[in-house]
Amino acid sequence: MSFDTPLTLVGPLRAPRQMLQDQEYGGHSSIHDDAMAEKLGFRAGPIEGPTHFSLFPPLLAKIWGNAWFERGCLSAHYQNMVVEGEEVRAIVEIPPEGATRTLVRAEKADGTPVLEASASLGPDHGQTLLEARMAALRPTGKLLILEDLHVGMTGAADERVTMAPDQHMGALYPFSLNEKLARITENSPWYSDGAASPWGRAIIPLEMVSVLAEYSSHSAKFPVKGPAVGLFADQEIRMIDGPLFVGETYLIRREIAALADSRRTESYWVRSRIFDASGKKQVAEMLLNHATLKDSYAGYSEAAPV
């Protein structure tokens, strides 16, 4: 007898930790600072969205094995903020045998949605959740904070990045990989012990690929007006020839993929392509929607274009 009843894998409730309280960019505190968050109408500094990405690899590896770390893609739309003290779980729909795409989500203990996402295994991912969202964007009105950006604009230069175990990851990420591993929601010996890893080297956790990709983002010199406070609204991390390795040097090239606006935000989507040190072989990619809060930009209501 067969059934078409959809089944899911459900991870345990985990309590993610806030590690960006001291984050700075553009010379000011970020939305992850409690005082700044409260000033902008949020109850506390939220935990950074990609922190929740760590909930999914144990479940997706159960479905796709080690190939998930080599060719997997998680494409997520963030729905509700999480603050330290709240618990979150991952839920993954079990795809049919041989399928390379499924839907996943994260929710709080009370069922409040945290993020929705597509998870897929390359090289043919089909249309990811964020590709669909980006294709549906309406044309923007006249922008103010982002008026000097245009789709197709590229970063000022190639950026070389590395993540060593004890390397402090800068003002944007005021901690090291080892400090993150002491608090990560789902740890693995693969993240710190090369001998335990199937690839013979320690691999960078999925959520820390975001840190690696943003580490040198200031070098792109995209002309975003400020100071203004932003947050991650959508994020996709895609492995092409992964995983990424601790201590390895990579080269990043960036491009503005889309622009958008809403009642509260002006947003720019950046595609960051991650190459090996030679710059010839692409190994991974991140698509990130930076939503800049209009109310955080001094004089926005007076200067805003009509």
CATH superfamily: Hotdog Thioesterase
Largest sheet: 10 strands, antiparallel
Structural class: alpha+beta
- Distance N terminus to C terminus? 63 Å
The number of distinct helices, counting runs of at least 4 residues, comes to: 7
Number of separate domains? 1
Specify the CATH architecture: Roll
pLDDT < 50 stretches: 28-34
Please name the CATH topology.
Answer: Thiol Ester Dehydrase, Chain A
So what's the overall shape? globular
What's the arrangement of strands in the largest beta sheet? 1-5-6-7-4-9-12-11-10-8
What is the ordering of alpha helices and beta strands? EEEHHHEEEEHEHHEEEEH
How does this structure look, described?
With 306 residues, the protein is an alpha+beta fold. It has one domain: Roll (Thiol Ester Dehydrase, Chain A), CATH 3.10.129.10. The chain contains seven helices and twelve strands. Strand 11 and strand 12 form a beta hairpin. About 2% of the residues have low confidence.
